[in-house]
């Protein structure tokens, strides 16, 4: 028999349209909880058919009531939203209208201002401004265009001078500029150069004996003094006894000075490492601080690497690179050949004629001497810059690449030096590090004032400059020595000007003027005329 709706269900159903979704849910819960009528046989086919028919009718009626209830619910929610958020929506609409009005007003104002800019009454001056080259704004501007102009003018002027020189004097470079019969007769200098590594082997044997406790510490110091002194005096004697070419003598003396500096560093560093090795705590602290394998070990391999490495300061291990860039090395070698040839061209085509047509700068007409110095200053500056680029940048980097030497700070931006002191600290970093490590710091540790330590460093530098120039020229008038020692008062003057004016340009201009415009050309003229006078006297 069919199952009819109970009065509760009918009542809930009739009120579903008014009460919304909550009434529908209550109706469904009550409907699902109604049991079948008593006395019915749910297992008979007729009963099952009746139940299915009743269930289908009930589901259809429920769907219709749900659709009517959902529509009523959506209408009710819409009315609630309008009542609840009507004010806020109105305010939002008013704000949008206001913003649109302001935006349209701003656009209108911009359009009017843009049109007004092209009228005769438009203001041409609207705020305070500085001229780009004024003292307050010159360092805030980019001068890349002026730099490009200077490069273009420099190339144009020098091209004209080269053409004019070739038209006036012709090709002055001799066929035997690099190799000549005089150079081939300098075999004693070559043999002396090949003998210099023997002193490094002697220093290694001394360190080995000290490590094995075969000799005392003071005996090792005495032997190192003899070895280093002989290493520098032996080439001097060979050059003075042989009337060799000046260029060959300069090359040998430079090599001898490098060997001397390396041997001093090797002996001094090993002595200090032995002192540190006696204190295990200091030794471990040093190794942790530098993050290097800094153990004390007299190794022949480390000595050989140090003697050929582009450094003057010995240490058991160095920062290393992982590979050799063969293509990069080839490119640097090509640059080295090009700039070396350019340097030789300037020397033969410009410097030699200027020097040969000059007189001794300390004799004769003063104005003529000043004119010669100024005329010589420009090609001399080019040669000096080429020398710096070829040696400190190209050659040392090539050597470092072949040896996988990691620390390649061979120079700093010395061209921006504000004082002479900054220049000497930045232009030759291998020598500067050697001076600080083996002269300046030990002097301070022994109680000497800072000024005295700096003076000692300049004194050592002056001695080696004199040896590298005076010995090959066979002239001992201390021009190079005086030129280096005169840097000390220049250091004081440029430091004073830097502190007084607080301007980097003043010290930098003084450095360029005194060092490159007047100092080097004057030394070239002095040594050239003294050399010519010596050769004339020997003839």
From TrEMBL:
Chain intervals for the UniProt region annotation (Disordered): 1-107
Biased composition (Basic and acidic residues): 74-101
Descriptive protein name: O-acyltransferase
GO biological process: triglyceride biosynthetic process
Family membership noted in the UniProt record: Belongs to the membrane-bound acyltransferase family. Sterol o-acyltransferase subfamily.
Organism: Salvia hispanica
Pathway recorded for this protein: Lipid metabolism; Glycerolipid metabolism; triacylglycerol biosynthesis
Lipid bilayer topology: Multi-pass membrane protein
Catalytic residue list: 465
A cellular-component GO term for this protein: chloroplast envelope
Domain of life of the organism encoding this protein: Eukaryota
Any matching Pfam family: MBOAT
Lineage: Eukaryota, Viridiplantae, Streptophyta, Embryophyta, Tracheophyta
tRNA-binding recorded as keyword: no
Gene Ontology molecular function terms on file: diacylglycerol O-acyltransferase activity
Keywords per UniProt: Acyltransferase, Endoplasmic reticulum, Membrane, Transferase, Transmembrane, Transmembrane helix
Cell location: Endoplasmic reticulum membrane
Transmembrane segment boundaries: 144-163, 187-206, 218-240, 246-264, 381-405, 452-472, 478-497, 509-529
Chief localisation class: endoplasmic reticulum
């Amino acid at each position: 028999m069919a199952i009819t709706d109970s009065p509760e269900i009918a009542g809930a159903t009739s009120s579903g349209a008014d009460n919304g979704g909550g009434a529908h849910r209550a109706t469904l819960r009550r409907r699902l909880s109604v049991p079948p009528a008593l006395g019915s046989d749910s297992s008979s086919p007729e009963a099952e058919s009746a139940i299915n028919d009743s269930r289908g009718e009930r589901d259809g009626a429920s769907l219709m009531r749900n659709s009517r209830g959902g529509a009523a619910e959506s209408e009710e929610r819409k009315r609630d939203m309008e009542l609840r958020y009507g004010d806020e929506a109105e305010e939002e609409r008013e704000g949008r209208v206001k913003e649109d009005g302001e935006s349209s007003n701003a656009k209108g104002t911009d359009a009017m201002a843009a049109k007004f800019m092209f009228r005769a009454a438009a203001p041409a001056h609207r705020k305070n401004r500085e001229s780009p080259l004024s003292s307050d704004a010159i360092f805030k501007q980019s001068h890349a265009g002026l730099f490009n102009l200077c490069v273009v003018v420099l190339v144009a002027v020098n091209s004209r001078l080269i053409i004019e020189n070739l038209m006036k004097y012709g090709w002055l470079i001799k066929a035997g500029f690099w190799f000549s019969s005089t150079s081939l007769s300098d075999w004693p200098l070559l043999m002396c150069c090949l003998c210099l590594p023997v002193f490094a082997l002697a220093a290694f044997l001394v360190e080995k004996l000290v490590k094995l406790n075969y000799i005392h510490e003071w005996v090792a110091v005495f032997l190192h003094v003899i070895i280093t002194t002989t290493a520098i005096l032996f080439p001097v004697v060979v050059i003075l006894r042989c009337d060799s070419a000046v260029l060959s003598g300069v090359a040998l003396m430079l090599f001898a000075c490098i060997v001397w500096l390396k041997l001093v560093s090797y002996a001094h560093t090993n002595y200090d490492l032995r002192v540190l090795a006696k204190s295990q705590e200091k030794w471990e602290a040093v190794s942790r601080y530098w993050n290097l394998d800094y153990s004390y070990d007299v190794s022949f391999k480390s000595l050989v690497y140090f003697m050929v490495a582009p450094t003057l300061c010995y240490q058991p291990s160095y920062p290393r690179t992982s590979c050799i860039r063969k293509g990069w090395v080839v490119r640097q070698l090509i640059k080295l050949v090009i700039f070396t040839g350019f340097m030789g061209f300037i020397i033969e085509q410009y410097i030699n004629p200027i020097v040969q047509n000059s007189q001794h700068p300390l004799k004769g007409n003063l104005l003529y001497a000043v004119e010669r110095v100024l005329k010589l200053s420009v090609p001399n500056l080019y040669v000096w810059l080429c020398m710096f680029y070829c040696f400190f940048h190209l050659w040392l980097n090539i050597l470092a690449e072949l040896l996988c030497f990691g620390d390649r700070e061979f120079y700093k931006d010395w061209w921006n030096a504000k004082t002479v002191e900054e220049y000497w600290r930045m232009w030759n970093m291998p020598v500067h590090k050697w001076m600080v490590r083996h002269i300046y710091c030990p002097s301070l540790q022994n109680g000497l004032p800072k000024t005295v330590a700096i003076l000692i460093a300049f004194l050592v530098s002056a001695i080696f400059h004199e040896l590298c120039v005076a010995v090959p020229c066979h002239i001992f008038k201390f021009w190079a020595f005086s030129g280096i020692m005169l840097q000390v008062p220049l250091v004081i003057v440029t430091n004073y000007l830097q502190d007084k004016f607080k301007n980097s340009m003043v010290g930098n201009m003084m450095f360029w003027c005194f060092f490159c415009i007047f100092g080097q050309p004057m030394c070239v003229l002095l040594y050239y005329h003294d050399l010519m006078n010596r050769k004339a006297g020997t003839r």
